[in-house]
Design a protein that fits this description.
The structure holds 2 protein chains of 2 kinds. Chain A is an alpha/beta fold. Chain A is built from 3 helices and 6 strands. A 5-stranded mixed beta sheet of chain A has the order 4-3-2-5-6, covered by helices on one side. Chain B is of the alpha/beta class. Classes of the chains: A alpha/beta, B alpha/beta. Chains A and B meet through helix 1, strand 1, helix 3 and strand 6 of A and helix 2, strand 1 and helix 5 of B.
């Protein structure tokens, strides 16, 4: 603040706005976004989640796989089919074992859902079903 | 850059490092992170499913079996109990000791109904496992 009122002492080009508080705020925002960012590939399909009261919060950094009511299994906007689940999970967790979140529509029949669930469990990953509270 | 070489014409306070390129870079990073950030808030449950069909059926007598049928009906011992009756049925049958609950979902039943039954069974506090049947 003091600097702003000193401008009379020197030439015209000294009368710049003090931007250091702005930089502080920008740095804090930057650090916030760096810390909170996780790079998760979203499935890209809209589903109606089943309801469950006993749901717990799931890990943010997970592999999201969707099962649509017309029987499609979708990962990252691409249809991979039930048979593609294992290879997709294995490819994604080559470095570390990531948990899997199965986003299945409530109209999906149990046969398809259980086949998808089995495929995911066979990889050894921790598999959860996404629900709405 | 020009400002730095002009510093000789005034006093000492004019000789500051030009930080505007730094700010540009920081702003670009900030915009990148704002644009790429998605806030994934997922809630869910884990399902306990025995890996072999034999494991689930060998102790049939000591299980509380609940069937979810194709048309969305929920049955126990052949009687319709409905989703709201699941907890009461489990409580009544496990009054002496906590028996494991086995949910048999028909292959053509849908996930929404199954999930509500599974949820109710979990809330009763017993062990719950799931199989699909034809």
């Amino acid at each position: 603040m003091g600097k702003r009122f000193n401008t009379a002492s020197s030439s015209d080009d000294e009368s710049a706005v003090d931007i250091s508080p702005l930089i502080d705020v920008v740095f804090i925002l930057l650090i916030f976004f760096i810390v909170t960012t996780v790079f998760v590939e979203e499935t890209g399909v809209e589903i109606t989640k089943p309801r469950a009261v006993s749901a717990a919060d799931l890990e943010k950094n997970s592999i999201l796989i969707a099962v649509t009511p017309d029987g499609d299994v979708v990962y990252g906007g691409k249809s991979i089919g039930v048979t593609g689940i294992q290879s997709t999970i294995k490819r994604m967790s080559s470095k570390e074992q990531l948990p899997v979140i199965l986003q299945a529509d409530q109209a999906v029949n149990m046969d398809l859902f259980m086949r998808a669930y089995d495929q995911a469990v066979l990889t050894g990953a921790k598999v959860s079903v996404s629900t709405l509270n | 850059m020009g400002a730095r070489f002009n510093s000789s014409n005034i006093q000492d306070e004019g000789s500051e490092v030009d930080i505007s390129p730094l700010i540009d870079v920081v702003f670009i990073l900030l915009i990148f992170f704002i644009v790429t950030t998605i806030f994934v808030e997922e809630e869910g449950v884990q399902i306990n499913k025995p890996q072999s069909a034999a494991a689930a059926s060998d102790s049939d007598a000591e299980n509380i079996v609940i069937v979810v049928s194709e048309n969305g009906a929920v049955l126990s011992d052949g009687k319709k109990i409905g989703v709201s009756g699941v907890q009461a049925t489990i409580r009544r049958k496990s009054s002496a000791e906590k028996l494991p609950v086995l949910i048999q979902a028909k292959k053509k039943s849908n996930l929404g109904v199954f999930m509500r039954v599974y949820d109710e069974a979990l809330l009763s506090g017993n062990d719950v496992s799931v199989t699909t049947v034809n």
